[in-house]
Design goal:
Largest sheet of chain A: none
Order of helices and strands of chain A: HHHHHHHHHH
CATH topology of the largest domain in chain A: Tetracycline Repressor, domain 2
Oligomer: homotetramer
Chain lengths: 200, 200, 200, 200
DNA sequence: GATGAATGAGTATTCATTCAT
DNA sequence: CATGAATGAATACTCATTCAT
């Protein structure tokens, strides 16, 4: 009996993964319950059985997507003590190729656009950036204290980094089939370091 | 008869304006022909009559939206000769409040997300950024030549500016109801100037 | 062009007739748009095209059903001047077999039950009985004036007649397959006449 | 074990009470197993477990509803010997306010309408009126024998009384929010007495 | 006795589109 | 230029029910 109950989260996760795939392959407007269900070989009403509403399901998808960033971000810092090294890892991560490939751009920005009309989704996004900002501020503060970077307002610097990394994702997602965008990430990382006053 | 035919573009423009409004107020998934038509007090099939397909209509909407940027951007530089002044006008523009208010974020990013699956829309966006980049490169080159900013790669710098300005729009669109984002634009502008080596 | 516009009411009437038939044959809970449409050989969405909502359609069905009574009732009195004769025609009508056969009992009481939860339907029913009562009061008043019936309160008498005729329809609709209900109508008519003080 | 099995009727009664409440509050078309179950905080399939079919459950609901009348009616006559008094109690009961308030009109007529298509339900209703008629006939016969009322056909009179009381319930259920229907019951009771030849 | 998983048919409604007028 | 009729596929969701546990 206990075993059966425990399968619900597993099943929901499964559904969310398929939802995400359909979203990537077909776009949000075509990511219908029917399409997701047929991809899974189940009946659409089973999805409703687990999420009760498509809206709630979208809400959970957003969380599922956003969690990916945190799940990839934090473990990388485990065991690293040196502030300079930690900052480098972070910058390498967010301006590297892996960060962007975590979530498909089309899926990501579709969900982001929903946040303008759906408060719950909005809050999920906001929470994610609050967390990211807190982490950055903490790291920058440590770096300042240790003299790794120039003195400055860590909150403003964090906002600068976030703006730049999101803009980079956005810009690259659009243009990467036209130009060589491999190196732009590296360039932007150098710019950030220069702004921070971190010798390269 | 020729005169009568000329009214078609006017009517199409009208429809696009209403489409945009519905998109802003109700979101892309609810911006149906029926909704647009009822807002205009006309019959849905009349919209088809002008655009033949919803997809084409969306394509034209994207162009209509993207034109707004160029239409606001370029006239501001008219008559200004001084490279330093021109660069200042540009930076004030893109990191000011007006730039973001040109197009509703929800509408903008909905369309952007479409570009991942719709080649025509993708090209519209790309073309817009190509143009923007060309303008920036040109301006930066002039500034370098005149010694207004430090020597450097104008293309990379342009990409940096574009990344930062789009990231700023993105970030602000999400967080402006939480924090004071009025000053972040100003701060980012200063950062850009510092990176360019332009004395503030 | 004018001809095309005029076909809408005809089509709506057609749909209502089919709706009524399905309602009679299958019951309200099974009278779905799909069932009505398939009976007509058309597409369900065409019904929505004409009525926009099932609820509105049900509202119009109720009016359509209730009109039947008035349409049968009033013409019978045309050309009859004598108050006694008019009253006889009325009583013969409502306690006769024809009155009940105008509308199927299952359909009628299904709609009546809706009136407890749907204000518009309720008002349709109420309006119908107001009209019926007005007619009865007027006729009774004339009969009193002419000495055809005993003096009395015509409004109370009208309410009595309405209660009795509806109770008769109700009771008969339920029991007619058990007992001989042919004569009950006649008996009740005599009771009414006795109560009115009208020599039989 | 035997004791445990005995709790089933209690549970069924509980479910029927909740079914009735949903029926009153939301109407027959919305009185689904899911709605009833969620109201009770149980799982829909538990209802199936007890009734095996919704249809059977509706059948039992009808009996549950109709029993209410008998349960209120008969006890009132207990201990009363005098035929005139007994008849008065009956008439006061059925033309008073309490009779109608026993069962919600919307619920009652919804079930009645089902009787046109569901034989089991039809028989439940018929049985109830047979019983009611038998009681009335018996009482009227006694009254005739004792000279309390005029001589006459007790079966016809019973049918008259039933017709009138049901018509009164029907009419009042519809119109009570418009007019003063408090006194109509009293008036109809007097009419009945007059028809019976019972001095008032 | 009670629950959750799963089903599959069915609901009203929305959608873009075509065609005739 | 504009409308209304009509279509057919698609939408999210509800429903009663079955089965395994």
């Amino acid at each position: 009996m206990a075993r059966k109950k425990d399968r619900a989260p597993v099943r929901k996760r499964e559904i969310l993964e398929n939802f995400y795939q359909v979203l990537v392959e077909e776009g949000l407007e075509r990511a219908s319950l029917a399409r997701i269900a047929s991809r899974m070989g189940i009946h659409p009403s089973l999805i409703i059985h687990y999420f009760s509403t498509k809206e709630k399901m979208v809400g959970e998808l957003v969380q599922y997507i956003l969690e990916r960033y945190q799940e990839t971000f934090l473990p990388q810092l485990d065991g690293i003590k040196n502030p300079r090294e930690r900052l480098s890892v972070i910058l390498n991560s967010v301006f590297g190729t892996e960060w962007m490939s975590l979530v498909d751009g089309g899926a990501f920005f579709s969900c982001y656009a929903l946040s303008y009309r759906n408060q719950q989704i909005r809050e999920s996004f906001q929470k994610m950036y609050y967390t990211l900002r807190e982490i950055l501020v903490e790291e920058l503060r440590n770096c300042i204290r240790e003299g790794v970077i120039r003195d400055g307002d860590p909150e403003k610097l964090a906002d600068f980094i976030i703006s730049l990394l999101e803009g980079y994702d956005y810009y690259r997602g659009l243009m990467e089939d036209c130009e060589n965008f491999e190196e732009l990430g590296g360039y932007l990382k150098e710019v950030v370091k220069r702004v921070l006053g971190m010798e390269v």
